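Exercise: predict the structure of this protein bound to FE2/S2 (inorganic) cluster.
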Amino acid sequence: MNDNTEGKIKVEAGKRYSWCNCGKSNKYPLCDGSHRKLEGIQPVRTWFHEDLEVFFSRENGKLQLKVEKLEK
Ligand code: FES
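Solution:
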C-alpha cells in the first residue's frame, strides 16, 4: 500500500470495524491481519451508532478519519 492514500467507505450501525493502524493491509483502510508480522501494532476497533460515511486519509503513517451522516 502507498503510505499516502485517501478514500471513503460506508459503515453500518452496530457492526464492528477494525481500522488498519499499520498501513500494510491490502483491504485498507480496514485491517486484513497483515499487522501480525509487525510487533506491537493492533488495529483500532470501532463501532458506529448509525449508518455513516467515513472519509479516511493516511499521510506519512498517520491515519485520519472524518465521519459524516449519509444523506437520506
Ligand atoms: S493490517 Fe494494519 S492493523 Fe491490521
